[in-house]
Design a protein that fits this description.
With 332 residues, this protein is of the alpha/beta class. It contains ten helices and ten strands. The protein has a single domain, classed as Alpha-Beta Barrel (TIM Barrel), CATH 3.20.20.100. It has an eight-stranded parallel β-barrel with strand order 3-4-5-6-7-8-9-10, surrounded by six helices. Helix 4 crosses helix 5 (173-185) and helix 5 runs parallel beside helix 6. Bound molecules: NADP nicotinamide-adenine-dinucleotide phosphate.
Length: 332
Amino acid sequence: MKDYSPNPSRYDAMKWRRCGSSSLRLPVFSLGFWHNFGSVDDFGEATAMVRLAFDSGICSFDLANNYGPQPGSAEENFGRIFRKDLAAHRDEIFVSSKAGHLMWPGPYGDGSSRKSIIASCEQSLRRTGLEYFDIFYSHRYDGETPVEETMQALVDLVRQGKALYAGISKYPPLQQMQAYRYLSSAGVPCLLSQYCYNMFAREEGEAALENAAAKGSGFIAFSPLSQGLLTDKYLHGIPEDSRAARPTGFLQAGQVTPEKVAAAAKLGSIAESRGQSLAQMALAWVLRDEKVSSVILGPRNCSQLESNLKAMDNTVFSESELQKIDSILNEI
Ligand SMILES: NC(=O)c1ccc[n+]([C@@H]2O[C@H](COP(=O)([O-])OP(=O)(O)OC[C@H]3O[C@@H](n4cnc5c(N)ncnc54)[C@H](OP(=O)(O)O)[C@@H]3O)[C@@H](O)[C@H]2O)c1
């Protein structure tokens, strides 16, 4: 692959939003490494996507310990790309990682105990070769670790210089609010709350977004396309190269239900009338609320990424469009 020299006008190509009450700004799109960047994936395409993202102003990269497969390999691949292409731009990029899901055997390789969080962050730093993460998240509330224990571990990572900010992901409402209180009182307010938010996951995303906004936390949305269901790819069956067909894909074929496919077809006509693809409209729909700091894209290739980027050109919806969208979604 040729040497990389970034596009000098990359910052003008992007739109920016502040994270809650912090002054930190993020690009409206971040790049996610959950799928498509692991050891089973095409490293050339992964490198090209990172370059295209950075050239387009996407300087925010979302990792986690377990992203792959193999678990850990997305962080390793990010590290390889970073060392070759982005090391000179470390202060221009915003890299996250997370711990909380199963990563290594035994009681300390899963969940949100202090032991797991601190050990996992050390491992993630080694895999990526970074000296620090910009934000480190608790990936989930595990149902048994006291929120205080997990949050104190995040606070300590920040104090130790291993992360600049702390964040939470997928916390249920009660624990979400407890986390905000603990982090604020420790002087490390929650910079970002990361939740699933898309047209097929409206209620949970909106509730989390309102809670975050009320407490000054920024909000970063994941799976904005419902893993591909909010595109036109499943309208005529399950394509061979799609996430639902791949053995390593998290989307199960059973989740491609006739109701969702029918809704996608109807939503597609509204998208068409807006001059957007369904995927672009679905991304724009998440961005229509200015409280959303950034949306994490999960493209499989450069052409998907290029098309998704155009969504930011029109994120305004008329009342009548929103009503039509709601009535389609209410039928599912
Ligand atoms: N905190 C958490 O627990 C959590 C959970 C999930 C995700 N995340 C983060 O959020 C990121 C994004 O999640 P996601 O991958 O589920 O996002 P997504 O955007 O909902 O789904 C990505 C998939 O949609 C399809 N797609 C994307 N752009 C397309 C386009 N223009 N046309 C047609 N199909 C398109 C591709 O499917 P095909 O492969 O079928 O082409 C792609 O693999 C992850 O990488 C991760 O960083 C965090």
